[in-house]
Amino acid sequence: MSDAKQRPPELLVDERWDKAVDLTLRRFVYSGAAGSLAALLLFRSPSTRLATVAFSAGAGLGSAYSDAARLFEGKPSMSSSRPAVESQPVPSKEEA
């Protein structure tokens, strides 16, 4: 975003909130749908099905909360593309 430096800080906060709300809604709906599908396929009791859906929706909300917190702190999220391990040269025996 080349125009991000030209925007006032109020608009950047609004953009972060938009991203956080969008992320929260998507993860809640998708994890709830996946949990309800799994509950229908795996369990017969209504209480067990409800618990499965509630657990999966809560997992989606928790995941969205942690990524939204990183978004507001300015840290990159875990889902962003970056190398998992930084490569460092291994010292040889003569250098050590």
TrEMBL record:
Cellular component aspect of the GO annotation: MICOS complex; mitochondrion
Subcellular location: Mitochondrion inner membrane
Mode of membrane association: Single-pass membrane protein
Keywords attached to this entry: Membrane, Mitochondrion, Mitochondrion inner membrane, Transmembrane, Transmembrane helix
Record Pfam families: DUF543
Region (Disordered): 74-96
InterPro entries, alphabetized: Mic10
Main function: Component of the MICOS complex, a large protein complex of the mitochondrial inner membrane that plays crucial roles in the maintenance of crista junctions, inner membrane architecture, and formation of contact sites to the outer membrane.
Family: Belongs to the MICOS complex subunit Mic10 family.
Protein name per the record: Uncharacterized protein
The organism of origin for this protein: Klebsormidium nitens (Green alga)
